[in-house]
Amino acid sequence: MKGWQQFWRQLSLFGLLALVLTGCGKDELSALKPSGPVAAMQYDLMKLSSAIMIGVFIVVMLIFTYVLIRYRKRPGQQGIPKQVEGNHALEILWTVIPFLLLIVMAVPTVTTGFALHEEYPKEEALQVKVTAHQFWWEFEYPDLGVATAQDLVLPVGKKVQFHLTSADVMHAFWIPALGGKIDTNPGQENKMWLQADKTGIFYGKCAELCGASHALMDFKVEVMDQAAFDKWIDGMKGVQSKDPAVATSPGAAQGQEIFNKSCLGCHAVAGKGGKLGPNLTNFADRERVAGILEHTPENVAKWLKDPQKEKTGNNMPNLNLDDAQVKALVEYMSTLSVK
Amino acid sequence: MATHHANAVLPDEPEKATLEGKNKILGFWLFLGGETVLFGSLFATFIALRDQVNGGPTSQQLFDMPLVAAATLILLTSSMTSVMATLALHKKNLKMIQVWLTITVLLGIGFLALEIYEFVHYVHEGHKISTSAFGSAFYTLVGFHGGHVAFGILWIILLQLSAVKKGLTVVTAPKFYLASLYWHFIDVVWVFIFTVVYLMGMIGGKVG
Amino acid sequence: MSAHASHAPAPKRSGLWDWLTTVDHKKIAILYLIAGGIFFLAGGFEALLIRLQLMYPESQVVGAGLFNELITMHGTTMIFLAVMPVIFALMNAVVPLQIGARDVAFPFVNALGFWLFFFGGLLLNTSWFLGGAPDAGWTSYTTLALNQYSGRGVDFYVLGLQIAGLGTLIGGINFLVTIINMRAPGMTFMRMPMFTWASFVTSGLILFAFPAITVGLVLLMFDRLFGGNFFNPDAGGNVIIWEHLFWIFGHPEVYILILPAFGIISEVVSTFSKKRLFGYSSMVFATALIGFLGFMVWAHHMFTTGLGAIANTLFGLATMLIAVPTGIKIFNWLLTMWGGQITFPTANLWAVGFIPTFTIGGMTGVMLAVPPADYQYHDSYFVVAHFHYVIVGGLVSGLFAGLYYWWPKMFGKMLNEKLGKWNFWTFFIGFHLTFFPQHFLGLMGMPRRVYTFLKGQDLDVGNFISTIGVFGMTIGTILFLVNVVVSAKGKRAVADPWDGRTLEWTIPSPPPEYNFAQTPLVRGLDAFWIEKMAGNKGMTPAEPLGDIHMPSPSFLPFLMSVGLFIAGYGFMYHNYVVVVIGLLVTFGCMFARSVKDDPGYHIHEDEIEEKGVKA
Amino acid sequence: MGAHAHNEEVRKPKVKHDSPKRHVVAFIGSLVLTALAFIAVAYEVIPAGFTVPFIVILAFVQAFFQLFVWMHMDQKGHEYARISIFAGLFFILAAIIVFIFWVWV
Ligand code: HEA
Ligand code: HEA
Ligand code: CUA
Ligand SMILES: [Cu+2]
Predict the structure, then answer these.
(1) Concatenated DSSP letters for A210-229?
(2) Domains, chain A, ranges and CATH?
(3) Which of C106, C174, C219 sits opposite B140 (nearest CB)?
(4) CATH number for the segment(s) C3-554+598-610
(5) DSSP secondary-structure letter at B137?
(6) Would you call C238 and D103 a contact, using CB atoms and an 8 Å cutoff?
(7) Transmembrane region positions (chain A) (predicted)?
(8) How confident is the model over A229-257, as pLDDT tens digits?
(9) pLDDT tens digits along A195-229
């Protein structure tokens, strides 16, 4: 029987596979490429526990292979093996050693656990309120008087204290490269802190099944240096304290007219509008349309033509706009910027 | 086990005289262990939701001590009378079994009547299953218990009727015994209901 | 035993009617196996569609809505309707034989348990044709599972699982009583075969875990159908309660699944090493301890719910502890093989393959038990990889081992070894190919339950490999079916094809309906082996040959379950006439059963001897 | 019992404590415990903070009374009954404690 050779061949195949896969995690997304202290602490725990586990696994496999090779029944082998009842020393050994290994793991588990549940007041951390919706994210900076959606903007190297809740069903807020997730529960507020130590864009995901388009409930985290962040806040504050600016170009003005009529009920721009849909004040500055589509005029148009096609079951209705209206809206919306 | 006397003279503790009987009693106890978890889960839910009145009536506004006390007294007494039925069973006295069980059933019906009256009254005060989480939890827990009482009543009546024809045998004896166990268990659950739901409700949600 | 038992001959039954009315544990085992097998194919087919959809990024094999229905039904079907019944099949087929009993304690209840499970599962699956399957995940978290956010499918989930769960619960009680009261003389607890022990603990877990989900489902039903507010935050409800109730049941459930597999592995490894199980008493202790600890750790599925550092840490540490008794088992198996003469028929291949695979799954389990790290793993493909390693690589392997091992006893036919080996290797390789990459997908940021993933996130390769692997498992499964068909025409099985150690191998394959012509006298652990070593040809009987009393077949279990099945639809569509009709059928049958005692029938002494049993 | 073994009438009952008196005493005990609980709440005789633990303890005492006396759980042959009830109780108490402390996060 060639079973065991095959088995080993297979195992080495996995080894290769593992290398290939680990090499490829995307910096912006992978939990294996931590970009902040929370993710780093978690990564350390992951490394420690996997090291212990691999150690135990190797021991098990060594005994396993030895036994299978050494004690296979040989052709012509006679007699009956000794019927061993047990062995107290051995049994104690494999009770105590795993227990000790668990203790090694338990200590950092406890310390990290409590460190991650620290809560920081506004003197020490930027406060951000997160509200999850089917299937988009709303972000508010209550102390700064700024609200945005889809793209979370954060300063680099500063603790951020999140207050999270949901407007409808349960979602979970997850930025793998910055740290683990936490659920957003309707009717309750959860807290979590994170910190980004690198500027750039990170990918965020919804990690709790929340309906048809759970898979597409992505968001982006834009981490900038403190100065750029302050500037962004000032820009947002400046715009959001006023009524929407009147568009200048004729196309955009036409678009704004449609927008005020059909869209403002759900979407806020500057200091005006509803909260049923994402705040669009800085729509033109965003990385993606609706969290998933690349931000191009074509994609904005695609979204406006048939939002349900891009994201099944989302709460923006198909408004049956004709091409001209869409064109005007796209032009208007490209002016919604604070940069 | 079956001697030639078997039909004429019942063995001691006839409910456990056969393997079937023993199996039934053991199985029923295990079932009661499961019921413990069942009611425990309902209690846990109730405790978590008892202050969530959503603008509806609170437990302090609703509950009425004399009513609960009366219901408790009735149910406790019925548990007592059902134990008397078991004692009669051990004396192999079918007539006394029937007498005690009849009293038990009547008391059970009385208890149910009180509970139905209570529920109707609450609904009139605007306390419904859909009013609040408290309302849902209250009716589910107390209603589940009431459902058990109702089932017990029907069960015992059925046993009584069929025993008229069959008499007391090693087949019917375990059934009487189980019905009595069941009835006691319902009473034990009620002890926690009057404590956790009613008495703690009257104290209010300040403590605990 | 009953004084009123009639001496009428065995009633004549034939064909379908026999199967619909049987109360014989061996036939019920076959019913469980067939129904569970069909549901396994359905769940596997759903898995196949899931993987096809995820083969490439942004593909559209199935839409977003359908995908959610598929994962929900895949998880629910596999757990409740596929592997649980197959476990019950093996327990039914083997436990009474291993303890030297003629049947289970409550044959009628046994049949009822099967039919309840069957009709519950049927009800759940009819949702596909009646407006859509449930789509809120097998965990059915609220508020997504409430009316406002999901369709009628969840009603099917609630009622289907309620009915099926009832069947499982009474099945569990039945096995507890059977094992406690029906053991043959001399079969003390510490002489029980490991599989019986595992069945015992599993049944205990069923007894205490299922009531929690019963309550959870009742609450969900009230919210969905009768305006309740348990989970509606706007009226003071709380969504966390569902999570707790679900996992208070759900975590013990995974040990309900795995313990019987542990039992099977213990039997198979010991038989094919020709050695007694190493450390039997510590195995028993470990089984019980796993069962006990299993109730104390449910919140490890809720680390990201926001319970806080204290709760998370306590539950995390408690969870890790389970590694210790499980490790005891792994090492005991290894040492059972140590010094033996190991042979590798298919049954043992599965058992031996189980050990490293399950160990990997257990390892990732312990990693998940570290709460801060779990904030990264949770609801990602890492978790999917973990539980398929323990469930498919562990439990399903164990079930295959058990099926190859006990098939001769159940059906009187040997499964083909050559096909069996192909079955094993294709499934085994396909399995690792499917689920090993998923660990990394999870760590690389892929959440679970996503119907698609976008391009440019480096998730393509892993998903592709993962999908390829499923074909291996599909081929493996189909080979098993082929094997079943081929073996039906294959060679007859002898009473003791594997040189077995326990009582089931002392009687013919398949056993006569009364199992043991004479109840055997048990003189130690591995009762049959002891007799073999003492040079005896069989067991010493513990009683003289005599008439055997058997319970009568009954159609009532079937009818009672149909009644609940009908009432279930009534509840869903708020049609109370239908509810009343259904419940009347059920209670009417209960009434009939209670009023009319079953006299049973006797198999006469002469008939037993005719079948070739020495007096 | 030897010679009389086949004489069913003479055989002593296996259960000796099963007299009505015992059960009546238990009944009165239950009534007293119940009354205590009601009085504690109605007349606020003990400090409010203690009332809840007090009546909960009374409930447990009464429950055990009934389980052991009325349901005969104290007797031989009830080992599994005890295991079953206590295991159920133990598991569910863990759940209740968690519900009290960790449901309203
Ligand atoms: C048969 C089923 C089964 C089994 C046996 C297990 C076994 C274990 N599981 Fe698993 N689990 C599931 C089925 C199962 N699980 C399922 C279905 C889910 C997901 C549900 C869902 O969300 O849909 C899940 C999810 C799950 C989670 C939640 C993850 C999350 O959602 O975030 C956790 C967290 O702690 C966990 C832990 C464990 C642990 C510690 C074990 C332990 O019992 C493992 C013990 C075994 C070993 C450790 C290996 C052998 C031991 C040794 C060789 C000794 C030496 C070892 C050490 C020193 C470590 N499991
Ligand atoms: C016992 C439990 C069990 C079993 C055996 C399996 C078996 C398999 N599972 Fe499943 N799985 C779960 C329990 C189980 N699973 C649970 C609980 C979930 C979570 C659900 C949720 O999130 O709510 C899950 C989720 C889950 C996912 C994640 C979905 C998601 O999060 O988006 C995936 C993806 O790969 C998957 C794949 C598979 C595969 C490939 C198999 C394979 O092993 C299947 C092998 C079998 C076959 C391939 C069948 C072959 C036969 C045929 C094809 C013939 C068909 C013919 C006819 C019907 C006539 N499963
Ligand atoms: Cu929101 Cu998933
Ligand atoms: Cu678990």
Answers:
(1) -STTGGG--EEEEEE-HHHH
(2) 24-66+88-225 (2.60.40.420), 250-333 (2.60.40.420)
(3) C219
(4) 1.20.210.10
(5) H
(6) yes
(7) 50-71, 92-116
(8) 999 999 999 888 888 888 888 888 999 99
(9) 999 999 999 999 999 999 999 999 999 999 999 99
